[in-house]
Amino acid sequence: MRPTNKRILDAAMQLLVKKGYRATTTKEIAEKANVSEATIFRNFKNKQGLVEALLSQHSPNRGSILEQTEGDLYKDLLHIGTCLLEELEHRKDIIKISFREPAMFQDVINHVTEYPQSMKQLLVDYLKTMGEKGVIQTGNEAEHADVFMSIIFGYFIHRLHLGDRVISVPQEKMLEHSTALFVKGISAD
């Protein structure tokens, strides 16, 4: 990506998070990025083009997550949970934008939910494999995946909106403790 486009996208992200889509103008984005408004129009066509470029900036490799599993339920779920939380953290600005003006950003919401949906399927497939090995109870893999992901999402959304004012457990400790509790609840023995 050209440095000019990166500056424009960074400025757009900062302003969209702070002010929202409607209140942010291309003129303000241009001023913040230290470019002319014409440069924005030439490279992105319009404000919606900027949002589309922001959405396409990052596409994580979900396949590598399963490649790094070891067959140990606790370690694997800790790894999957950590990857999910890291990706949510990486996308937090886009998520904030989607919360700020959800009616205007159906495309953003669809984009934001693609990764968690694919992670859920990855988790369901992993849990089915562990069920076939007799490690966990079988038959409720989708529900188990929903519960595990709800733990991760709940923590992320809480921290996004409230910081550490209510839940002060550090991320690593939260992941370790909640994963241990979850594993205990779904284990076959």
Name its key features.
single chain; 189 residues; mainly alpha; Arc Repressor Mutant, subunit A; 0% strand; elongated; HTH_TetR; repressor; DNA binding; HTH-type_Tx_Regulator; Homeodomain-like_sf
Description:
By secondary structure, this protein is mostly helical. It has ten helices and no strands. It has two domains: 3-56, Homeodomain-like (Arc Repressor Mutant, subunit A), CATH 1.10.10.60; 63-186, no CATH class.
Could you write a compact summary of the structure shown?
The protein is an all-alpha fold. 74% of the residues lie in helices and 0% in strands. α1 crosses α4 (47-56).
Residue runs with pLDDT of under 50 for 5 or more positions: none
The SSE order reads: HHHHHHHHHH
By DSSP, the count of extended strands is: 0
Q: How many strands, what sense, and barrel or not for the largest sheet?
A: none
Tally of helical segments = 10
The mean pLDDT is 87
What value does the Rg take, in angstroms? 20 Å
What level of helicity do the residues show?
over 70%
Choose one word for the global shape.
elongated
Sheet/helix structural class = mainly alpha
> What is the distance, rounded to the nearest whole angstrom, between the alpha carbons of the first and last residues?
52 Å
- Domain module count: 2
Strand content: under 5%
Multimeric state: single chain
DNA-binding region: 25-44
GO molecular function, one term: DNA binding
InterPro entries: Homeodomain-like_sf, HTH-type_Tx_Regulator, HTH_TetR
Keywords: DNA-binding, Repressor
